[in-house]
Write a structure and sequence with these properties.
The protein is mostly beta strands. Helix content is about 5%, strand content about 35%. The chain has one helix at about 190-195, and strands at about 35, 40-45, 55-65, 70-80, 85-90, 95-100, 100-105, 115-125, 135-140, 140-145, 160-165, 175-185, 210-215, 225, 235-240, 245. The strands form 2 sheets. Strands 1, 3, 8, 9, 10, 12, 13 and 16 form an 8-stranded antiparallel beta sheet that branches. An 8-stranded antiparallel beta sheet has the order 7-6-5-4-11-2-15-14, with no helix packed on it. It starts with about 30 loop residues before the first strand and ends in a 5-residue tail after the last strand.
Length: about 250
């Protein structure tokens, strides 16, 4: 965790080409993230299927919420008409994971709305005891579940995978910044989380064999596309401009 550039500084107001930032797997450098306004911004990544019907899976991301407020839907794959959803919400004072039902809510009174960057991991494994099936880590440390039961399998949804909003765009839009969002087809362990968090600075994830999707959220991207550096689900920045890609990253 570290203080970084304030929201009013370091906006990138033109497109980002391959000559800027880092190429995955070569001299990894993280210089850019994506900022969401909490009003109508979101990134549509199409139909990401890694979690459909799965009994294991993980999400890793860096996020920054302004002091005293912000947060919202980090990622979602939601179909209100079918009642099927995967919703991962990082809010100012709690974290929730929904998979048809509320399956995880963080306990305690810690707030992450402090203007600093934080790293979050959601690790799901149906073979764990029901209250441990979903585990969440912030800045390398496990956050306790308030007592909700994890699912035996994740639902299959035909909805698109959104970053920064719920997939029906009705509410819960994210206010803040997101960086280095990655999906895995295994349940990350404490040692995995520790390695990915490192010293509070993002690292190259390309060596993880379980990595299925990886959006760098600015580095090596050209507006309005956020490239999927592992899978085939490039994201389209919607209701956003190139200025939403900012020079503000965990350091």
């Amino acid at each position: 965790m570290a203080n970084t550039i304030e929201y009013g500084q370091g906006a990138v107001n033109n497109t980002i080409g391959w000559g800027q930032g880092a190429k995955v797997g070569s001299s990894f450098i993280n210089t850019l993230s994506t900022r969401f306004d909490g009003i109508d911004d979101f990134v549509d990544c199409g139909n990401v299927t890694v979690f459909d019907g799965s009994s294991v899976g993980s999400i890793s991301a860096w996020f920054k919420i302004g002091v005293g407020s912000g947060g919202g839907s980090l990622i979602s794959k939601y179909s209100s008409s079918l009642g099927l959803q995967i919703l991962f919400k990082v809010q100012s004072s709690n974290i929730e994971v929904l998979s048809t039902n509320l399956n995880y809510r963080s306990s305690g009174t810690v707030t992450w709305a402090d203007g600093n960057w934080h790293h979050v991991v959601m690790s799901y494994d149906s073979s764990r005891t029901f209250k441990e099936r979903i585990q969440v880590y912030i800045d390398g440390s496990k956050v306790n579940n308030a007592g909700f039961n994890g699912p035996l399998t994740l639902p299959t949804s035909t909805a698109d995978f959104y970053i920064g909003a719920r997939s029906d765009v009705s509410f819960g839009k994210f206010t803040g910044s997101i960086d280095e969002l990655a999906l895995f087809n295994t349940a990350l362990t404490q040692s995995d989380v520790t390695a990915i968090y490192g010293s509070g600075v993002p690292t190259d994830l390309s060596t993880y064999s379980s990595l299925t999707n990886w959006w760098r959220m600015g580095d090596s991207d050209t507006f309005p596309t956020l490239s999927d550096n592992k899978g085939s689900n490039d994201g389209t920045m919607t209701n956003m401009t190139s200025g939403n890609i900012v020079s503000d990253v965990p350091t």
